[in-house]
Design a protein that fits this description.
The complex is a heterodimer. By secondary structure, chain A is an alpha+beta fold. Chain A contains 15 helices and eight strands. In chain B, a hairpin with a 6-residue loop joins strand 4 and strand 5. Chain B has one domain: NADH:ubiquinone oxidoreductase Nqo5 subunit (Beta Polymerase, domain 2, 2-Layer Sandwich), CATH 3.30.460. By secondary structure, chain B is of the alpha/beta class. Classes of the chains: A alpha+beta, B alpha/beta.
């Protein structure tokens, strides 16, 4: 770790060969544009980036080790604290892995509720990303526009799940409680609100010339590199990689709804921006198809009080707002996992950052990092 | 691409490899020394396993197992490769030049499990502090201050 800013002078470079030497600067761990405690050590030549080295671990809690002493009902609650903007989807992935191992059939009603909650979470997450990214580029107003919609979703979540951020609503076998009686009405009101306002986003930010100049052609990631770096989610889809788990291996009721996998082929920051904006619209499309047809019945399958997984290895993949989350459980047949691994999307996406920004200007670093949509607890785990 | 084709090919180059098809995907068990050669083969055509989506390690107390989840973005077949690593002298060759995502993931495994990745470009600690001692995800790791046994 670097404890102080170091200024390195390369003695082999002189004024004659046109270089002023290298400068090493620290961004973070406390920096407003990293949206969390991420530490980047950047080597600069003038204003040009030569290297970016991420230093992680400022919010490392060793969730994987912690889960080894928690039961299969308890460990789900810890995972809300990984990617806190996709808390529902994290819980969903864990619940699905346990269900897969124990062959629990989830009632139709619970499947509908889960997908609805997942998609609302995805919209809320992308809203926050949109506001925060515009703020990174110096536009403060979009933040308030984004929070108007996001707040509506949070209120819906609060009524049904009792929490706004770490919901802990999914349990093995279904969901923890039934929907709030106002849920359907409020979600419909939200869809109307969203549709009324989504075009404002384009007027405010997307069409802005300054914004486009800072986004287009910046932070380029080719399709081959996106695959090699293990990128997933909107980052990979903006480079033209088909990687939407909802399409590749549909879970719950995703196979019954119609939606498009949003793909762009440019691979630059602007493409990643467009993918997320379009994904919000696709999520709304999924919610619209499901909201009127939530079947009656149980919201939770009957399960034993103490869950025991059979001996074996179980892996399940879901699409969070940031990309592919994998939950890998190795069971020895007891009530706690022998080993658990969370394959977090942010960790792989961050590893591509150095490759993406090398050779560009320092000012473009924040624009590129903003479009990666990093959530630091998800990376550190 | 079917499991049979993959098995047939791997048996032809690594006769000692064993297979397990009880899970969702084909599991291939090999020794650590064989991994690098196998990785180069399956990365290229016709197998094209270009997407390494999960890389991790399991401590079985008697030995360590490196687990590689691989899939192909062209034909969508998924396989799992498990390489047995000696616990006392844990080392395996890096694949960070074959799949670049392995660079970060191997660094993580190196500090949490104490596996030495031969020829890895940069094996400094990524998550833990530089002066941290021990390998926290090994089963015999004890930390009387920060670990709470439930």
């Amino acid at each position: 770790m670097y404890t102080e800013t170091q200024i390195l002078k390369d003695t082999t470079q002189t004024a004659a060969n046109g270089s002023e030497g290298e400068l090493v600067i620290n961004v973070g761990p406390q920096h407003p544009a990293t949206h969390g405690v991420l530490h980047l050590v950047i080597t600069l030549n003038g204003e040009t980036i030569k290297k970016v080295e991420p230093h992680l671990g400022y919010i490392h809690r060793s969730i994987e080790k912690m889960c080894e002493s928690l039961t299969y009902r308890q460990f789900i609650y810890v995972t809300s604290r990984m990617d806190y903007l996709s808390a529902h989807i994290n819980n969903h992935a864990c619940a699905m892995t346990v269900e897969k191992a124990m062959q629990i059939e989830v009632p139709q009603r619970a499947q509908y509720i889960r997908v609805l909650m997942d998609e609302l979470t995805r919209v809320a997450s992308h809203e926050l990303w949109w506001g925060a990214m515009a703020m990174d580029l110096g536009a403060f107003t979009p933040f308030f526009y984004a929070f108007r919609e996001r707040e509506t979703i949070n209120e819906i979540m609060e009524e049904t799940c009792g929490a706004r951020l770490t919901m802990n609503y999914m349990v093995p076998g279904g969901v923890m409680a039934d929907l709030h009686p106002d849920f359907v009405r409020k979600v419909k009101a939200f869809i109307q609100l969203f549709k009324d306002h989504i075009d404002e986003y384009d007027e405010l930010v997307t069409g802005n010339v300054i914004f486009q100049n800072r986004m287009k052609g910046i932070g380029y990631l080719s399709k081959e590199d996106a695959i090699s770096f293990g990128c997933s989610g909107p980052v990979a889809r903006a480079s033209g990689v088909n990687c939407d788990i909802r399409k590749l291996s549909p879970y719950e009721v995703y196979s019954q709804v119609e939606f498009d996998e949003v793909l762009q082929t440019e691979g630059d920051s602007f493409a990643r921006y467009l993918v997320r904006i379009a994904e919000m619209k696709q999520s709304i499309r999924i919610i619209e198809q499901l909201i009127d047809g939530i079947p009656e019945g149980d919201f939770q399958a009957k399960t034993k009080a103490v869950l025991k997984l059979p001996k074996g290895e179980f892996y399940s993949r879901v699409e969070t707002a940031r990309g592919e989350l994998g939950v890998y459980i190795v069971s020895e047949g007891g009530t706690t996992p022998y080993r658990i691994k969370f394959r977090s999307p942010g960790f792989s996406n961050l590893s591509a950052l150095d490759h993406m920004v090398r050779g560009s200007k320092i000012g473009d670093l924040m624009a590129t990092m903003g479009t990666l949509d990093l959530v630091i607890p998800d990376i550190d785990r | 691409m079917t499991n049979e084709e993959i098995k047939e090919f791997i048996t032809s180059i690594l006769p000692s490899a064993t297979y397990d098809e009880t899970g969702e995907w084909l599991n291939i068990n090999i020794e650590a020394a064989q991994w690098r050669r196998l990785a180069q083969w399956i990365r290229n055509a016709p197998f094209d396993m270009d997407y390494l989506f999960c890389l991790t390690c399991i401590d079985w107390k008697a030995h360590l197992t490196m687990v590689y989840h691989l899939t192909s973005t062209s034909h969508r077949h998924t396989i799992v490769v498990k390489a047995k690593v000696d616990r006392g002298d844990a080392q395996i060759e890096t694949v960070s030049d074959i799949w670049r995502t392995a660079e970060f993931h191997e660094r993580e495994v190196a500090e949490l499990f104490g596996v030495n990745f031969i020829n890895h470009p940069d094996l400094r600690k990524l998550i833990l502090t530089d002066d941290f001692e021990g390998y926290p995800l090994r089963k015999d790791f004890e930390d009387p201050v920060n670990m709470i046994r439930l």
